[in-house]
Amino acid sequence: MAVKKYTTAEPRWLAQYGRWQVNVQKDGRRKTFSSSIAGRKGRAEVMARATEWLQSMDADNIRLYAAWERFMSDQQKNTSKSNWIKHDSHWRTHIKPTIPDKRLDSVTPFEWQACINHAAQNGASRRTCINVRATIIRFRSFCELERFAHTIPASTVLKVPKNTRFKKRIILQPDDLYRLFTTDHITKTVYGTHIRTTPIYYIHAWRFLVATGLRPGEIIPLTHDSIGKGGILYIDGSRNILNEHTDGKNQNAIRKFILTPLALRILDDQADMLKQRGIISPYLFPAPDGGQIISSRLTRAWCDTRGSLGIKSRMYDLRHTYVSVVKSDVPDPLLRATVGHSTKMDTYAVYAHELDGDMQRAADMAEVAFDKVLGGDIANPKTR
Fold first, then answer.
1. What are phi and psi of 100, to 5 degrees?
2. How many Å apart are CA 53 and CA 30, to the nearest integer?
3. With 0-12 CB in 10 A as exposed, 13-18 as middle and 19+ as buried, what is 177?
4. Pairing state of beta strands 29-35 and 19-26?
5. How is 202-226 classified by DSSP, letter by letter?
6. Is pTM, for the whole model, over 0.70?
7. Number of neighbouring beta carbons within 10 Å of residue 91
8. Is residue 80 within 8 Å of 244, Cβ to Cβ?
9. What is the SS3 assignment for 20?
10. For 171-210, how does the pLDDT look when each residue is reduced to its tens digit (9 = 90+)?
């Protein structure tokens, strides 16, 4: 016969004492709760106090795997899918294989560190190791909110092994950039003899990523209303790999900056291409049916096309290429403001007048930088 972990009796109204009373028991420990408030309110009060005590007993004895299930349930309800699937991946790949199921408060700091070491030993990049640590710390915060007894150390204690390296970025070199900005069609041989030439539908989107330093997900929701007076581009959101709308990676991802003449010319070329195809859409870079691009399809199109252009870079590396091209010409504070890197100060909010001048200066400097790399014939824009 199975032994109950806990028992809860129904609250009783003890008329002779003028109070509600309920008796509960868990793991051999008993507790009585009472309330002198008559009616439903008093009954609800004693039940709430009894339930809280039982949950606190659970918190003291909860096992790691059960705590993780509750954590994941919370994440699935309160965060985007792209966030919680990363936690789930880190759990299945590095945490669960390292720590057996046991009482949460018996897991040692050494074992938590071993999870990060496990990732490093299995060839994970430094970024992945940092993300595994972030998952553990997020789990720690959840445990504290739930009042689970735990031994999870703070982030300052958990270390990322020094021998880990960030995944190498393959930045487009000048020859790669030249091909990207001068190739509008790709030629393929079909069945060994037939040669087929196909226009590259997303070529202007990829050029725009290079010319602006936008994240791939930031280009997807852009509409004609995203461009304001004076060629200012307003970034107010992004689309992740699961096609979910997000507010960006950090507080400075929501931003504005002046487009360079090169970027404006790319938009003109994109508009001409859409007009030739008879595509009417509110989006600057729509899908062929005029709707919003799906992130995974844009990535797939890049992977299918880059080989024909002689390029090995990932699509996200187009953003890094922008930074590499302009970094010598654009001062770091202006560059951060343009690409939306995290900073400790909201420069836009504090120095509005100076910012207007800075944005124009950043655009002028970036244009000069691209002119050096691409040459005047390609980078010299037509008037918008």
1. -70, 165
2. 10
3. buried
4. antiparallel
5. THHHHHHHHHH---HHHHTT-BGGG
6. no
7. 20
8. yes
9. strand
10. 888 899 999 999 998 877 666 666 678 899 999 999 999 9
